[in-house]
Amino acid sequence: MSLDKPFWVLQQATQSEVFEQIQSDALLSSSLWVNIALAGLSILLFVYMGRNVEGSRARLVWAATLSVPLVSIASYTALLSGLTVGLIEMPPGHPLGGEEVLSQWGRYLTWTLSTPMILLALGLVADVDLANLFTVVVADVGMCVTGLAAALVTSSYAFRWAFYVVSCAFFVVVLYALLFRWPRAADAAGSGEIFGTLRALTVVLWLGYPIVWAVGVEGLALVESVGLTSWAYSLLDIGAKYVFAVLLLRWVAANEGVVSRSGVAGEGRAAPADD
User: For residue 87, what is the enclosing H or E element?
Assistant: First the structure.
């Protein structure tokens, strides 16, 4: 593949080839089909679960959560069609240097759109400060965008890891908020128990993504199978998106009063009385 052509030209030129390659790999295609099916079922389930939610804050949490499978079903369909998948030549120094590797770069677009919605829902349930929520969401988007850069850089193996390190630095900001700042707000809002459960699920599963990148074909290529790497990402997505969302929406439906008492970005919190 010639690297002197624009990236989008390369994508269009190889889309049919990539589509055929995906269809011929049962392991790879099944990892995408499973998520398309689960996303579709999740959309129907979440609409049903939110049918009686009336409070504006509760509905905002529900809408943010519902957007996750909506983004996912579009994204996984694009991956399966080959639209957001391409063949890239790994740079010198990479274990697969000089070889063309199937890159599912569309996954990073999915995460850029879906993970902020997950954090928004969590932040609303915990009733965190608006500035804090905005900062964490921006860090999350930065994490996803620099992760995309790490996956697509073909000029230098060192730069792939440089972008990976930057992405992890953004991730540390997100982890710090989830582990140390947001729990105090959740306890004050009366949602500490569900927040603790969702925080543990999110932190554990989100830590899996950089690990898969590092050991998979994009990083050290300890696992050279694109299908296995894709399944690892898909399984993480199932837990981090659908299991997370079911737990959250079930709690919101049963505790709408707790959510309604909280104020967006602290605006609904009662001011301390004067002595």
Answer: strand 86-89
Helices (H), the chain: 7-24, 26-49, 56-81, 106-126, 130-152, 157-176, 182-189, 192-215, 226-237, 244-254, 256-261
Question: Alpha-carbon distance 251 to 48, whole Å?
Answer: 14
Question: Is 275 a domain residue?
Answer: no
pLDDT of residue 263: 56
Query: Could you report how far apart the first and last alpha carbons of the chain are, in Å?
Result: 74
- State the pLDDT at residue 54: 86
Tokens 């060192």, residue located: 158
Quickly count: other Cβ atoms within 10 Å of residue 146's Cβ: 21
* Structural domain contains residue 269: no
CATH value at residue 95? 1.20.1070.10
Domain housing 133? 7-264
Q: Structural domain tally of the chain? A: 1
Contacts of 176 (CB under 8 A, 6+ apart): none
- Residue 273: per-residue pLDDT: 38
Which phi-psi region, left, alpha or beta, contains residue 253 (left: φ > 0; alpha: ψ -120 to 50)? Answer: alpha
Question: At residue 254, what are phi and psi to the nearest 5 degrees?
Answer: -90, -15
Residue 271 domain flag: no
Tokens of residue 78, six digits? 């694009």
Q: Which residues does the chain have with pLDDT short of 70? A: 1-13, 262-275
CA dihedral 174, 180, 184, 189 (to 10 degrees): 20
Whether residue 104 contacts residue 85, with contact meaning beta carbons closer than 8 Å, is answered with yes
CB 38 within 8 A of CB 106: no
